[in-house]
Amino acid sequence: MHRRAVVSILCLFSVAPAFALEMPPRKPGLWELKMDFEALKLPARVMQHCVDAATDKLLNAQFGGPATAACSKQDVQNVAGTMIVDSVCKFSDATTTTHAVIAGRFDSAYTVDVTSTREGGRALPSQAPGAPTHMKIEAKWLGACAADQKPGDIMMGYGMKINILDMPKPGQMPKMPGVSPRP
Fold this sequence. Notes:
Order of helices and strands: HHEEHEEEEEEE
Helix content: 10-25%
C-alpha cells in the first residue's frame, strides 16, 4: 500500500472517536471525501467510499469504540445541529487533545474540521512536537455505488481500491499472505 494511502486512511480514522458518539448514519451510497492536512504540508487527498447502513455502523463500532476507551475526556455538544467534540486521548505514550466541529447533513454533505495537539510519543513526519495540526474533511454524497463496488470499498483516486472490512481491527496484526498466525 502506498505510504500516502496509509496516511490518508489513518488520518480519516483518527477522527473516528468523534463519529462513535451518536453521529447520524450516512446515507447509503458513494461518498466523496476530500481531506486537507494543512499542517502536514500534504496535498489534499480525495477518495470515494462506498457505504451501506451495515458498513457505516460497523465502521463506527470498529474504529470508534476501542478508540474512545483510551480517552479521558469526551465532551460532545450539539449546537443547532452542529456537533462539537472535545477529547483528550492517550494512545501508547502520546496524548492527543482534539477539537472537532462536524456540520452538515449526513444524507448529502458534511464537513469535519479537526484541530489536534499531540504531546509525547515518537516524532511524526512533517509535524513539530506539540504543534497543533489541522485537518478538514469535506464529504459529499455522489449517488449509488458503481456496479463494481461493494460496501466498504475505498477508492484512493489513483487506481487503488481497498475494502475497510479487510483491514485489521484495532489491536490486531494485519494478515500476511502465506503466513499463518502462531497457535
